[in-house]
Design brief:
Layout (H helix, E strand, L loop, with lengths): L2 E2 L2 E2 H8 L3 H30 L5 H17 L2 H11 L6 E5 L6 E2 L7 H9 L15 E2 L2 E7 L4 E6 L8 H42 L15 H47 L4 H26 L1 H4 L3 E4 H14 L3 E5 L3 E6 L1 H18 L2 E9 L2 E8 L20 H4 L9 H11 L3 E6 L5 E7 L5 E3 L1
Parallel strand pairs: 9-11
Antiparallel strand pairs: 1-2, 3-7, 4-5, 5-6, 6-7, 8-10, 10-15, 11-12, 12-14, 13-14
Helix pairs in contact: 2-6, 7-8, 10-11, 11-13
Subcellular location: Cell inner membrane
Protein name: histidine kinase
GO molecular function, one term: ATP binding
Length: 454
Amino acid sequence: MRKTRGGVLGFRLPRLISTIHGQITAVIFACLVIAFVIGSTLESWVRDEYSAPDLEGMSARVSAIALVLAKAEPHERDIVLMAANRGELSLIQRPISYFDNVSTTSPDEPFIQVVIDRLLPPEDRPIPYGGWRTFVDGKRVLAAKVDEETLLVMELQPERFLRTDALRFGSNYLVATVTLIILFSVFSVWAITSPLRRIASSAMKADISLGPAPFEERGSVEIVALARALNGMQTRISSMVEARTRMLRGISHDLRTPLTRLRLRADRVSEEEVRDALLADIERIDQLLKESLGYLRDNHQYEETQRVDLASVLQTVCDEFADMGHDVRYLGPSRAVASVRPSAITRAITNLCENGVKFGTKVEVHLLMENAGAVIEILDDGPGIPETHRARVLEPFFKVDSARGGSDKGFGLGLSIVSEIVQAHHGTLEFSDRQPEGLVVRLELPGQSMHQKL
């Protein structure tokens, strides 16, 4: 076996079609081979088995007999025509004036004949007198000029007219077209569409955690290069986010020492009003650090999906708020098993309930089943969120002070955490008004395999 630069020749060939360009070339080559083999078989079958008129062959016969008549004496022409008409031909001599009423169309012409002539016009010579499509009194004819006064005319029968040459070429075109469509359809699904859908599905499920490569590096060279580039991008993004998180955690941790010293010094201030103001500011800074660190933990990104009793998780959150004296109730099935990240869902519902009791007096947590998925609704009787701000409230540190309380009502991180948790579950988060007043937060977790018990 001959050696090449890339290795053994027998193992070099698959590399030639490892790219999409090479695969397309291989598909076209295979199509040509199939079209040649099948097309030649059909052409042979049509030529040998199908009894259809050959328009180009008839034109050649008419022209040949017209040449013989042109050389014959006047009294010999009848003998020549009699001999020519002994076969299936029907030839007759007509004066040149016979073509005075010639046309190129006929109302009685079959539609299939028009289509064939338009798509596959005859190309061989000799061309009949007046062209390939000549009609006299509605009848299609082939004519050849004998002399300046005489034409040799053959009348065709439209009801049984279907050209053999059109069938031969049409079968070749049909085989080539169908083969191309089938091969390229299979190729596009196998080499392009399916890998791109696989990558798109992986992209929908990917997160910023430093886990295994989410994109499978399998397929053509281009698809593998795309998957490898996306895996590299995901790794770089994860590393960048992790570095940012470590930096902010370090800053937050370092700030706690001076805050502790400030708190101790503020306690020594003799003026009570000034001391209380200083301690309130220090407490607010400390709370901001705690919420920022909680936002940066991203524990939900690393938590594994588990099958848990979602109804029990929601009931536990509501009971904890009720134990602290808040009016928070759970309404839904007593048992509902779902595949979720339990700690992340607990954190999301807790944040939403905290917002509800912070801006309202009563909170209800509903669990529903829709389209085989889990739907959680948190309803409160607070002032709600204006529709113009519902997209921005999911941004970190954004607050709608005019609608949801003053500047001392949190730091705008709770809904950002909820949004990221819902996205990690490939779900949706929506806000709507509650009547007569309040807010409805709807979490949809699609595709969850759930079983409920009332």
